Amino acid sequence: MASSVAVENLNPKVLKCEYAVRGEIVIHAQRLQQQLQNQPGSLPFHEILYCNIGNPQSLGQQPVTFFREVLALCDHPYLLQREEIKSLFSADSISRAKQILALIPGRATGAYSHSQGIKGLRDAIAAGITARDGFPANADDIFLTDGASPGVHLMMQLLIRNEKDGILVPIPQYPLYSASIALHGGALVPYYLNESTGWGLEISDVKKQLEDARSRGIDVRALVVINPGNPTGQVLAEENQYDIVKFCKNEGLVLLADEVYQENIYVDDKKFHSFKKIVRSLGYGEDLPLVSYQSVSKGYYGECGKRGGYMEITGFSAPVREQIYKISSVNLCSNITGQILASLVMNPPKAGDESYASYQAEKDRILTSLARRAKALEDAFNNLEGITCNKAEGAMYLFPRINLPQKAIDAANAANKAPDAFYALRLLESTGIVVVPGSGFGQVPGTWHFRCTILPQEEKIPAIISRFKVFHEAFMAEHRD
Amino acid sequence: MGRKALDYEELNENVKKVQYAVRGELYLRASELQKEGKRIIFTNVGNPHALGQKPLTFPRQVVALCQAPFLLDDPNVGLIFPADAIARAKHYLSMAPGGLGAYSDSRGIPGVRKEVAEFIQRRDGYPSDPELIYLTDGASKGVMQMLNAIIRNERDGILVPVPQYPLYSAAISLFGGSLVPYYLEEEANWGLDIVTTRQSVAAARSKGMTVRAMVIINPGNPTGQCLSEANIRELLNFCYQENLVLLADEVYQQNIYQDERPFISARKVLFDMGPPISREVQLISFHTVSKGYWGECGQRGGYFEMTNIPPKTVDEIYKVASIALSPNVPGQIFMGLMMNPPKPGDISYLKFATESKSILDSLRRRAQIMTDGFNSCQNVVCNFTEGAMYSFPQIRLPKRAIDTAKSAGKEPDVFYCLKLLEATGISTVPGSGFGQKEGVFHLRTTILPAEEDMPAIMSSFKKFNDSFMEQYQDYSRL
């Protein structure tokens, strides 16, 4: 009896989609980690170092104390009745928790909320967006989601009707986009970022890709921009952003702005400008459909496990907004802790608040450390034979390019692996360092990269660099033409 | 510039087809009225804490400590947290490297999945494999993932009970599949008739459909019926013969209000039946922290367990789970605590048991109060709420009411529920949101309003219903 659910009869879109960030290399790393536990000393390294995923707290980054104080009090509001908490919690975390609970109907943090998220929290987020951009934001435009990713899926679901609907996606990209487009049965229309100009985005190239897609009968519906970039780390120049917005308006495209790394900027000559601000500065207002994504997983807060995030939608007609609301309502609501955290991230302690000094110190410590680690790893990669590495202006990753010798490429082909996957696997097996092959993100054909996070603790970085160097030199020597 | 990418006409048709009445027209109208200052009693969704049910103390203590581990370092922590909550927080923190702020394994924290497996083993008497248990952000996400994996195109049919919880119809619409209804028999206590179900499958197949899966909701939503062991055996045999995956929504397994039919899991019955069926029938079982006596809807904690699913399929399901990175960690801890609650002898046991019993006993009483209350109203007939959280009375609408509704462009039960809302502030969901037989009308309400408010609510309903029936009674009765 043929089983009803077997790989042969699964949804082909599920079979087609891929997600390398937790793909083959990572699964293998987990197996090796198990082996290290069961047979210590059986491998040439004593620990697996996960540099594959932007998961800061798994590698020792500490959460922001004020945020955790508020969340704990909201989780167990009974604490607010106890005198003892005054010695355990800062006064402003206590007052913030009280203020947040007052915004929640019945003070019930265990209840399903409004499907867009608790109104008072959306008001706080809207106020934060307004303060950030200098242009007003509206609570009704905000949809709180379990991380930013569900919001991306929702828009793909809305936009993609069939395989002829295309979405412009930067290459290299964070593979949520390619996976989501595959899952929804659409066409990914790539536009290549220019490695030689610091991963710059050329509108003329994007236009060329758009026209090419249209000539093939693809109806291009949206443009995805990731700013700061993942895996590439570039921060868009403001001029570039104006060009992108005008381009979307002229071509009738929805702009999907993934801005989850907005608080991860490591260079003084670049600033984060939200696309909302750019759109409003150009006076477009409600004329351009724009979805802006933010998350609690990145920045200096790094609260990945909470699954908090939101999308701000502007320039959408009422009937379309109703559809977005309707789809959101099927899942009822996002988790309340994540909602509260999103409101804290967009409305953190201010000068004058009791926790401000310690909050600011924690934030600075994390961000300056990230900047140092980005630089240290960038320099280290650039010092290796055959590797060039663009600066990580922002985000949490380096995306070095490896000039693999032909012999290595041949060995990879013989092993039936993409050359960068072959390299990454060998790196893992020699050093325990887990990176994601560039083919997982897309790259110009014939070029090879890998993505490595800047997240291991600072004191581990020298050892990582030296282990990497030893491996790489041996690998290049082994495969020298 | 001509048409824009996000003009309504250009949207994915599947999205437009989706309906989800639980937060649909009635709820939106109720929210509007609430903004205008009217007092609304929201009985549209199974959301216990929103209606005053208090969270259980122990899990909140544990999660608060996990949220702020610096508390554990403070010498005074024992003054405000019991020792077992402190120990349990440490236990979960040790299982979650990086604490609550790190993405976990995409399937959920292995230690928590082990607690789930152990619960299942204790409950059913059969071993359960943590590797085949995936934690999700609420059970709904798991249902969506499974249906998305199964549905290839509009010729793939999913057997769904009518009435059903409209997550199923919404998900099937969204993924472009076909809903194949099997009608529950209201006169037979919402029982399932295998003969008519088999006919539904045959009819679907004759239209060129491949029927892939069968959904059961036990205890039922909105109907509340609890399946007997014989029922479940019959169902499993049916799935075996018809080659269907069984999707067993068991989220209300703790909500049982009669003693004749205690909860028995589909998995237990499957294994009791022995080979070959126990090795062949593919089964996915769903559970959540949102219902039961926990009612922690806002945490978004759930799981699904896979039985007899081939390894390659499991790999694909894992792949899709990994795109979402990980379920939220606090929700996972709530699940662990629900699966592994305080035991007799633990410091917090007495309080935990008292809180739990009080909630369950009250739910049982409210189930009776509401059933009796509806049955005392003219033209209203209501099956007893054997389980779950809802009452689903049948309203025998007079013809004039039906005609008035239709000329107002409304489904008759929507018309009735809107009038009920405007007159009393009681916000329900019309039966058409769940599916019902042609010409038979219902509404769904929850049994969740506070017990002390119940008499007033039921008398308010009765008063409205009396006046509605008088207003629209058939002239032929005069």
UniProtKB/TrEMBL annotation, chain A:
First-level EC class: transferase
Cofactor needs: pyridoxal 5'-phosphate
Keywords per UniProt: Aminotransferase, Pyridoxal phosphate, Transferase
Annotated catalysed reactions: L-alanine + 2-oxoglutarate = pyruvate + L-glutamate
Gene expressing this chain: LOC100825019
Record's function text: Transfer of C3 units between the cytosol of mesophyll and bundle sheath cells to maintain a nitrogen-carbon balance in the C4-dicarboxylic pathway.
Organism: Brachypodium distachyon (Purple false brome)
Functional pathway: Photosynthesis; C4 acid pathway; Amino-acid degradation; L-alanine degradation via transaminase pathway; pyruvate from L-alanine: step 1/1
InterPro entries per the UniProt record, alphabetical: ALAT1/2-like, Aminotransferase_I/II_large, PyrdxlP-dep_Trfase, PyrdxlP-dep_Trfase_major, PyrdxlP-dep_Trfase_small
Similarity field: Belongs to the class-I pyridoxal-phosphate-dependent aminotransferase family. Alanine aminotransferase subfamily.
Domain Aminotransferase class I/classII large: 106-462
Subunit structure: Homodimer.
Protein name according to UniProt: Alanine aminotransferase 2
EC number: 2.6.1.2
Keyword Transferase: yes
Lineage, opening ranks: Eukaryota, Viridiplantae, Streptophyta, Embryophyta, Tracheophyta
An example Gene Ontology molecular-function term: L-alanine:2-oxoglutarate aminotransferase activity
One GO-annotated biological process of the protein: L-alanine catabolic process
Residues in the signal sequence: none
TrEMBL record, chain B:
Aminotransferase class I/classII large domain span: 87-449
GO cellular component, one term: peroxisome
One protein family per Pfam: Aminotran_1_2
Biological process according to GO: L-alanine catabolic process; photorespiration
GO terms for MF: alanine-glyoxylate transaminase activity; glycine:2-oxoglutarate aminotransferase activity; L-alanine:2-oxoglutarate aminotransferase activity; pyridoxal phosphate binding
Keywords: Aminotransferase, Pyridoxal phosphate, Transferase
EC number: 2.6.1.2, 2.6.1.4, 2.6.1.44
Catalytic activities: glycine + 2-oxoglutarate = glyoxylate + L-glutamate; glyoxylate + L-alanine = glycine + pyruvate
Gene3D superfamilies: 1.10.287.1970, Aspartate Aminotransferase, domain 1 (3.90.1150.10), Type I PLP-dependent aspartate aminotransferase-like (Major domain) (3.40.640.10)
Pathway this chain belongs to: Amino-acid degradation; L-alanine degradation via transaminase pathway; pyruvate from L-alanine: step 1/1; Photosynthesis; C4 acid pathway
Swiss-Prot/TrEMBL cofactor(s): pyridoxal 5'-phosphate
Role of this protein: Transfer of C3 units between the cytosol of mesophyll and bundle sheath cells to maintain a nitrogen-carbon balance in the C4-dicarboxylic pathway.
Similarity-based family: Belongs to the class-I pyridoxal-phosphate-dependent aminotransferase family. Alanine aminotransferase subfamily.
Subunit structure of this chain's protein: Homodimer.
Name of the protein: Alanine aminotransferase 2
Species per Swiss-Prot/TrEMBL record: Brachypodium distachyon
